Amino acid sequence: MAESTPPPGAVTRPSQSPIDAPAIELRGVDKAYGTRRASREVVKGCSFCVDAGSFTVMIGPSGAGKSTLVRLVAGFEKPTRGEILVNGRPVVGPGRDRQVVFQETALFPWMTTRENVAYGPRARGEYTPETQRLGERLIERVGLGRFETKYPSQLSGGMQRRAELARAMVNRPTVMILDEPFRGLDAMTKKLMLEYYAALSRESQRTNLFVTTDVDEAIFLADRLLVMRHIPTSVRAAIDVDLPHPRKLTGLVAHDRANDLKRHVLSLLHEEAARSFAAGGNAADFVAAYRLRAASGSLSGQTLEDV
Ligand SMILES: Nc1ncnc2c1ncn2[C@@H]1O[C@H](COP(=O)(O)OP(=O)(O)OP(=O)(O)O)[C@@H](O)[C@H]1O
Ligand SMILES: [Mg+2]
């Protein structure tokens, strides 16, 4: 059978990685900040696996410790205890096998789209004709072909996010880690970006760990959901999202199975947020948002007390 051409930026598994090793594995990870007397535990006894090639979404209350976990998996920080493995190898620092896209833009304002996308390979001294072509194809693939010579200030918010995706993917990571990458975009742009990214990621065999506080976004994207506990965080529940692909955000609204999943996830999140609230944490916004949604009927007439 003829092999199809891989899409731009598609990944090949690292040949030296142990066979069948999960793409990401956390074993009993703790993370505390501060000195012993004023120490704050943010992550406690956190263990989970992310299968290679899967789309895993981490969802949890605001302030739970999700971004802390992202920094640990990215290798920007070290755990206080426990072990983190990526493709079967212990994480000892940042690596190009993992690319992180944060909510805050990381594009250099003085560089054009093309220069921003070329930055990673250039900084490593690996800017070959092949990486240049890959960069150009990725810029086309994210729909910015006509904006190659524009600066970030000349791009809309959605375009900037797409440039960031191309800038990460040009490094051919096996794992993409996205920490609320579309937070702050207007509702329509966010919807388009979600559908766009879902299609893009299904083309490659890349592993995705995507962080959000938005349950609709989570169910739309995920093969598997990790519902996180209130700080100090760990996995409260791992839930398989057995909905067929391709999905449509609007289609999920009327989908019974999607709504069952949503109710289940929201009830878990509500319990975690309420614990945070009771402990004086910063989940008050989440509870208020939940009440608003319940009042607007978007939870099928359920009240906060029903779930
Ligand atoms: N460098 C740090 N030093 C001290 N405390 C920190 C540090 N980073 C995070 N924390 C603590 O960890 C808590 C969790 O932060 P984190 O950003 O990981 O949460 P989050 O789940 O990503 O929240 P959000 O949904 O709002 O992005 C913070 O409220 C803060 O108290
Ligand atoms: Mg965060």
What key attributes describe this structure?
307 residues, alpha/beta, Rossmann fold, 6-stranded mixed β-sheet, 4-stranded antiparallel β-sheet, 10 strands, disordered C terminus
Protein described:
This protein is of the alpha/beta class and 307 residues long. 36% of the residues lie in helices and 20% in strands. The protein contains 9 helices and 10 strands. The protein has a 6-stranded mixed β-sheet with strand order 6-7-8-3-9-10, sandwiched between helices. α3 (129-141) packs antiparallel against α4 and α8 packs antiparallel against α9. It is globular, with a radius of gyration of 20 Å. Bound molecules: adenosine-5'-triphosphate and magnesium ion. Magnesium ion is lined by residues 66-67, 179.
Write the layout of secondary structure elements.
Blueprint: E1 24-33, E2 40-50, E3 55-59, H1 66-74, E4 81-86, E5 89-90, E6 98-102, H2 113-123, H3 129-141, H4 157-169, E7 175-179, H5 187-203, E8 207-212, H6 215-221, E9 224-228, E10 235-240, H7 249-252, H8 256-278, H9 284-295
Parallel strand pairs: 3-8, 3-9, 6-7, 7-8
Antiparallel strand pairs: 1-2, 1-4, 4-5, 9-10
Bound molecules: adenosine-5'-triphosphate and magnesium ion (MG).
Residues 66-67, 179 line the site of magnesium ion.
